[in-house]
Design goal:
This protein is an alpha/beta fold. It has three domains: 288 residues, Glycosidases (TIM Barrel, Alpha-Beta Barrel); 55 residues, Oligo-1,6-glucosidase, Domain 2 (Oligo-1,6-glucosidase, domain 2); 66 residues, Golgi alpha-mannosidase II (Immunoglobulin-like), CATH 2.60.40. 26% of the residues lie in helices and 15% in strands. The chain is built from 14 helices and 21 strands. The protein has an eight-stranded parallel β-sheet with strand order 11-10-9-5-2-1-13-12. It has a five-stranded antiparallel β-sheet with strand order 14-15-16-21-18. Strands 6-8-7 form a three-stranded antiparallel β-sheet, with no helix packed on it. Helix 7 links the parallel strand 10 and strand 11. Helix 2 runs parallel beside helix 3, helix 5 packs parallel to helix 6 and helix 11 runs parallel beside helix 14. The longest helix is centred in the middle third of the chain and has 18 residues. Bound molecules: 1-deoxynojirimycin. 1-deoxynojirimycin binds next to loops.
Amino acid sequence: MNLPLTLPEPSRTRDNPGPWWRDAVIYQVYVRSFADGNGDGVGDLLGIRTRLPYLRDLGVDALWITPFYASPMADGGYDVADYRAVDPTLGTLGDIDALVREAHALGLRVIVDIVPNHTSDRHAWFREALAAAPGDAARERYMFRDGRGADGELPPNDWESVFGGPAWTRVPDGSWYLHLFAPEQPDLNWHHPEVRAEFLDILAFWLNLGVDGFRIDVAHGMFKEPTLADIGHDRQISLLGTQALPYFDRDEVHEIYRDWRALLDTYPGDRVAVAEAWVPDAARLALYLRPDELHQAFNFHYLGTDWSAPAFRAVVDDSLAAVADVGAPATWVLSNHDVQRHVTRYGGGPLGQARARAAVLLTLALPGSAYLYQGEELGLPEVTDLPDEVLQDPQWERSGHTDRGRDGCRVPIPWDGTEAPFGFGPPGSRQSWLPVPADWQGLSVQAQRGRPDSMLELYREALRLRRALPGLGGGTLRWIDAPDGCLAFERGAEFVCVVNFGDAPVTIPAYGRQLLAGAPLVAAEAGGVLLPADTAVWWERTAE
Ligand code: NOJ
């Protein structure tokens, strides 16, 4: 099943001396919600295959596909029962093989998800562990412990699951096992040599099939503080990504990535690994990006930044400084399948749309690589009124129905037509695993394509320019003077980006030829232009 690894790069015109991933734009496909090829209401690999030309035309370099492996779907596929099999609801191994070939033929690379912190409770290893007696070697691949209290009736410590409730579940013989996520996702014991060997073999399996890399789920997990001491804090999830936690971001985890990098480097074609690592600061994140470890990490600090010029300037500076020390490219991300969609985060409605337009122009102008989440190119908002009975995210149950979870950003993509779910499935299919809002017709791909003021056309044009302009992609930026509430920077001698984060128009110089703006600019006094509130503009600097 090996594929040729020299990809055509049909539309790449920009100077790009380094490997492809250093300035790639990577589109995240949440498989169950992207496109349904067989009409059962759940997105699948066949659906992705039929929509690959859409991604090529959008102008991205690669897609990252969330887990499609055999899974009981207790956490949308992040509970893997067999890492070398495709879930029958999502397709077959033949489908993923064909998908990779077809993507490559279109000049698109393919990154797949790998979930090493935990398996499904239906994984053969966990079944074997449950069938074994306490203390049996079969349990050592996971984190089984005795409980506390007179009869061991209390969990071994006070650690909380990221999804709410204790991070421990008791099995009928009285032992407890650790699960930092749902009980259906038991944590692996990464001190066990078989665990380490197994994941190297799984990586090789997918590399041999031809994938271009991996997105590593909970890349900051795997090793836990060995004494399993209490934390003494009753909302541990609120500390995630801002403070040290004893089960995340431990130094031992870097040994794994050195092994993985060595394996990746034996394959031709610049295979890449990107870390999902929620760590307290950019400096800790940079450790994952040392030259013998991973290639990229998601920049969640950027995603979480409040809409203000000083905040964005600080996060851009911090991010660039942190990766510069290790020689890795910065990455930029605004949304993914775990967070509220950014149109809504930025205020929703016309305000959220305007800010989202500005945010993508800022993001795609920054040095490094960018990740887009499916549907953001359509300006999809978070769906906040899903009925209780359709919610599937384990956060909903685990939080005792206080946290509605992440389903609101996972609603299927509207493609075309006049009735929900707007072409999500094949012609005639009306099913979708989450209901698509009846008023999303105007947000569909069909409704936006060719409409110059649409979000979709803004993304397409920004991506086209990003490929065409030598100053964009990799490299550095230089801040230039900007009015209060604005940021302005140059990329090379010829490109300028200005973003107005404020709520009133500001006068800025006309830097040359206007390439692209989130909203129309009008002429102002002294040869300047008026940049509307919450708007960004790209200029090609011309000689004065
Ligand atoms: C991060 C994934 O993005 C999320 O969707 C999942 O629930 C957790 N890791 C657990 O695997």
